[in-house]
Amino acid sequence: MPEGDTIHYAANRIRPVLEGHVPDALETPHPRFARDRWPERLAGQAVRSVDAIGKHLFLRFEGGLTIHSHLRMSGSWRVFERADVVPPTHRSPRSAWLRIRRGESDVLQFNGPLLELMTDSRTRLDRRIAGLGPDILAPELDTSKVLRRLREDDPTRPIGDALLDQRIVAGIGTLWRAEGCFAAAIDPWRLTGEVSDEEVLAILGETRPRMQASAVDGKQDRFKVIFGKAGRPCPRCHAEGAVSLIRVRGQGDDNRRTFWCPTCQR
Ligand SMILES: [Zn+2]
Fold first, then answer.
1. Which of 36, 63, 158, 160 is deepest in the core (most CB within 10 A)?
2. The pTM is what?
3. Angle at 35 (CA atoms; ends 34, 36), nearest 5 degrees
4. Near ion ligand 1, which residues have CB within 5 Å?
5. How far is the CA of 43 from the centre of ligand 1 (A)?
6. Ligand 1 centroid to 150 CA: how many Å?
């Protein structure tokens, strides 16, 4: 699941390869970029910084241009060392949207929907980026701003839906929405107006350290306690000798699946 931790993990791997360096080669193998002339426009320019904000990744170049990516469900970033054995099941670098090489390292981006080259001034004005709420993985999470944005929003919206709204808090997707609410024992269907600030902070407090750990090693799956486990017994209820089955249902405008235990999440 490409969520904020996935993007920060990618940025953490790309940064030592590219930051402060001019790439040896930059290619856009996929035909959709054939006319965009990125190799010419970025030729000879060093990468100034590699930044993750929520689910967005930015490769900022010295000349004032930035590559902006958002993976949604289908995209991925990969970093290979020349010595690595690329798994045979893995897509060929020739099908990548973007390939940047430096030294022994190969940075690849596959699929999308969003990979674009934009000016720095546009990254500051773009509403998708400028409107983002605080990044849950920012070094200092601005929780008062998260609460302010949440309280300005529709109080009749379920809390699980509000957690996916990147204008309130950036980086949480369906996986962390489910696991964060479960860990804090809060029902994702409760209306935001009936969830206290302390309860919101409890959800963020459970979610952030898990995402931080996943951003370091990329091992997101170890945190899946209830996500994808509809119909199986809730582990927390089970530990107390009770049986309650994990449920799943689409939530919010996009009808994205949320998982919860109807017994121990309140
Ligand atoms: Zn339970």
1. 160
2. 0.94
3. 100
4. 234, 236-237, 244, 261, 263-264
5. 55
6. 26
